Each structure stands twice: as structure tokens, then as C-alpha cells.
Amino acid sequence: EIGLQTEVDIAEHGVGAGLKLADKKHIPLAMIVGESEREQGVVTVRQLATGEEQVVSMAELASISAKGVAR
Q1: Do 43 and 55 meet the contact criterion of CB atoms below 8 Å apart?
Q2: How far apart are CA 63 and CA 66, in angstroms?
């Protein structure tokens, strides 16, 4: 366990609206899992403060999450 609080957005709106909502709530990282990500076994991780994105495997996800929060 790395001590991250999480929130899942399953509302029926676009990714952009979800990212705006996350930014409004001061959530530092958004993890995007769409149909193409699921097919590839990856997650797109976006740092909301900078807009920087990384595509990472599920295995790498915990490491990236911990580093992103520590910044």
C-alpha cells in the first residue's frame, strides 16, 4: 500500500470534462483507462498541474503514482 486516495469517475461525460473536474478538486494525477488502454494493458497517467502524460503498464502504475504524488 502506498497511501493514495483515489476517486473513480464513471459519469457519462467525456474525458476532458472528467479532467476539468479532477483539476477543480485539486487532484494531482489522473489515470485514464479507455478502450484502447484496456486492450493494450496500459494506463495513461496525466499530471494535471503540468499536462505531462505517460503511458505505463499496469505493473508500472504504483511506482509512477507514488513518484507523482511526491513531487
Answers
A1: yes
A2: 5
What grid cell was written down for 65?
503514482
pTM of the model: 0.72
The 10s digit of each residue's pLDDT in 10-63 is 888 888 999 999 999 988 888 888 889 999 989 998 999 999 999 999 878 767
> Exposure pattern of 31-62 as b/e (b: 16+ CB <10 Å)?
bbeeeeeeeeebbbbbebeeeeeeebeeeeee
Contacts 24+ apart (CB under 8 A), 55-62: 61/31, 62/2
29 within 8 A of 44, measured Cβ to Cβ: no
Q: Which residues contact 50 (CB under 8 A, 6 or more apart)?
A: none
- Could you give the 3-state DSSP secondary structure of residue 56? strand
